[in-house]
Fold each of these.
Amino acid sequence: MDKLIINGPTRLMGEVTISGAKNAAVAIIPAVILSDEVCRLENVPDISDTKIVIEILLKLGAIVNRINKNTIEIDPRPIRTTTVPHSLAKRMRASYYLIGALLGKFNKARVSMPGGCDLGIRPIDLHIKGFEALGAEVKTENAMIDCKAVNLIGRPVYLDMVSVGATVNIMLAAVKAYGLTVIENAAKEPHIVDLANFLNSMGADIRGAGTDIIKIYGVPRLGGVTYSIIPDQIEAGTYMVAAAATRGNVLIKNVIPKHLESITAKLEEIGAIVEEYDDAVRVIGAEEYTKCNIKTMPHPGFPTDMQPQFGVLLSMAKGTSIISENIWGNRFKYLDEVRRMGVMAVADGQVAVFEGSCKLTGAPVAATDLRAGAAMIIAAMAAEGRSEIENIYHVERGYEDIVSKLNAMGADITRVSVDDRPVNTVKAELA
Ligand code: EPU
């Protein structure tokens, strides 16, 4: 299993270019199934989650051509099967988007229950409620979700809690349904808007994405397009926090500053400087930070996917900070690991209290999920001494070239495969 060796402390200096958004890409790639022509996608992040979703499309029969590292062409016309087996679906959470896309195109889908980060209970009842509202019959047997419809018909769908996944899946299923679907209390994340823009560019008629009411007028046919995926809000936010935590000075390029407002506001509140440009932000770290409290909320609130990274930063601030996690039931597991690096924080259910002014020191830790892993990398760069971070496959699900991007700004990170270590190193460790 590969791990990272990080020597700290580092002061990150220079610039970094943000890749395409993971959570937009994992919705847009399956959405190509709905097209009757070839689509070209640009700015696709080269991460394991997009590789898995591409592999699923290939298994379904699509033709996928990689034009270069971040551009792919997908021809969905040869797709003949509508079943996604457990061996593929278990590898990522967003495999559930295959249900909406296959149902929307072929009126049927059989997809195994999805995998993904363990953040607590992750039900998909709202997705199923949406499919049923559109007229599908949904059965779950042996962890396979089986959906069938004679015809999908547009209807109002009220989501009793804001769900990114349910909003995406209902959009995918409804885009070619007959008549008008209205999603009320829809998610407003940037990747919802990006998916709507992509579908509209193919000929869909979706209005209101980015507000809490999305109207989808069904269309009979979607064509081929070339589309560029938006920059990743959370990757950008992670580098912003990394710049602040290492008291560095980093220009973060290829971002949409509006998407980063909630993160910028919190960084400024604790004392970092954030300069905004048209498509870049510069974060200048301070020698000392002051405490703040954070409540994670659906967009435009503070994103849960930035909570662990900010937790590490707040442990270095002066005073006691409180984070309330309002999206996921189990997103403080990283604290057990970062406590080994000197973070003083305790969680009680959905609330964690961070005692500030912690002096971080390097330690061996293991990534518990994607964003937890990112938080551990930030802690290790800010810490004095050597850290080892195991289970970095979690991080590689969502961050393109993270090691080379950080090393180019002065970090000292080496990625090692346990089996690649020189034999005498292994012997020395065993001794
Ligand atoms: N929920 C339900 N029923 C449902 C769906 C969701 O009760 O049918 C609940 C969930 O249990 C959770 C809340 O609603 O408490 C929000 O879940 P949501 O559906 O919005 O999350 P998701 O679509 O499964 C996406 C991102 C996550 C991100 C969340 C929240 C993707 C592929 N994943 O998950 O990203 O944390 O939205 O913003 O888009 C990550 O990138 O690290 C990550 C975990």
Amino acid sequence: MTQPWWRSAVIYQVYLRSFADANGDGIGDLAGLRSRLGYLAELGVDGIWLNPCYPSPQQDHGYDVADYTDIEPDYGDLAAFDALVADAHDRGLKVLMDLVPNHCSSAHPWFRAALAAGAGAPERARFLFRDGRGKDGELPPNNWRGQFGGSAWSRIIEPDGTPGQWYLHFFDAGQPDFNWRHPDVTALFDEVLRFWFDRGVDGFRIDVAHGLYKHPELPDWADSHSHFNAHAWNQPEVHEVYRRWRRIADEYGPERELTFVGEVWVPTVADLAAYLRPDELPQAFYFDLLQQPWQAGLFRSSIERAFDGIGATGATITWTLANHDVHRTVTRYGIVRPEPYHDSLPEDVSLVRPRGEVDPALGERRARAATVLLLALPGSQYLYQGEELGLPEVLNLPDDARQDPTWTRSGRLDPGRDGCRVPLPWTPQGPNYGFSSVFGSSGGRAMFAPWLPQPDWFAKYAVSEQLQDATSTLSLHRQALSMRRELFPASEAADQSITWVDIPGRDDALAFRRGDITCVVVFGDEALLLPEEWGEVLLASLPPQEGRLAGNAAAWLRVQ
Ligand code: GLC
Ligand code: CA
């Protein structure tokens, strides 16, 4: 039986602001992306997920939405969006948008109306406004901490000029959380889904999908430093939202094969699987693997947890190693001497943005091996732009260039996420390394610098160079993606299982079989002699020498 495309699709995440800039203003845009769709089709992915491209003051780069049914003017307009979707579909690429239902921008008309209307007004009920504690309401209503650091509450100035109520914002102060118990909020998102489905999009990635509802009493969270505030996240009511959205998607008929992929950060795999019930989200990212350091045993147990907790329910597993919120894989896996963060930061910062001394060459080797592993796993995979180039994290951005609110809100303790968002290098020379088109430039130099500065060493990662080098990380991705299509055709009955293969005496290596393909990964430094019965090497992150696969490398083999 054919299965829906998304169950086994490889999706390329486009951080639009940093992908390609068609008008030379230093900011990526829809026309730039459209001009590079050929690159993505040739890379061999099945579709793209676009980070939010709605009108936004960009305080959290688009995750602060001021209007859910329009396009940010810096990126283009609705006509440019329609043209992008049409071209993508012509090339056989699906298009997923990013839906941000937990919060909007403080520039959204509803929030402005709430501020103007005064305490107790119905306009305030769409958000979470509360009086403060303390003698004059000078203390926040509860002790919840925001995800970017500091309190999750900000106090406003009332229309009469006096300090007044507080509003909840789990992220930046420019991102007020909605009150999902208000019917207007439900109705707004019903309309938003239909608006974009009517325009032809194939699905949505759902931002902070475990958020939306908060405990109705907003009680203090006893362990205020624990990363997971169980009064704020993963409330039972949220599941009803996804049942509702699934019904809306189903109205479009089975032939559209619409999908949702949730960004769900919850404590256990069982919690995650609850979002994947047959009438809820078709997909949710499996972030557990992304948080593992480069060790065979930890990778194996994470993969096993996914199969036991998700695969066993019949849902597809959505694998990913990188996105716009975490340090790039080259840098994470290249850490040779870890350094702890300040202990006031939540533990998950050190999991997703680990720091320490980095060996970029080792990191790239491991990141290549990790890709070969990832693409052999049954399920769907999400690749983040620039990973196919083996780009390292830009760790040394000048402080005054940093834009992520995490940096300032954490008291400059958490470097934040700018380092994985630096605009892509397309050519070793040219305006902004080919990120910006010559249009809008003067004298061969871009008129506008990119919105985040690119380091000089970006030149050596340029797409145009890597395309000419059969051993480049880009070429490895192209080979792996085309081979994946051939070896594991989506049309085949969904065999979601793998079988582990023992490698005696080598607990620093992993091997598993999927059909007649063996995928082997050596996490340690010592080369592994490939057993003859595993057959012929089809793909390798580093070519084996005399039947030995080097350390920090991976390969696919097929029994003859
Ligand atoms: C998600 C996004 C992140 C954003 C946050 C608030 O975690 O991936 O980039 O800052 O939600 O919308
Ligand atoms: Ca632009």
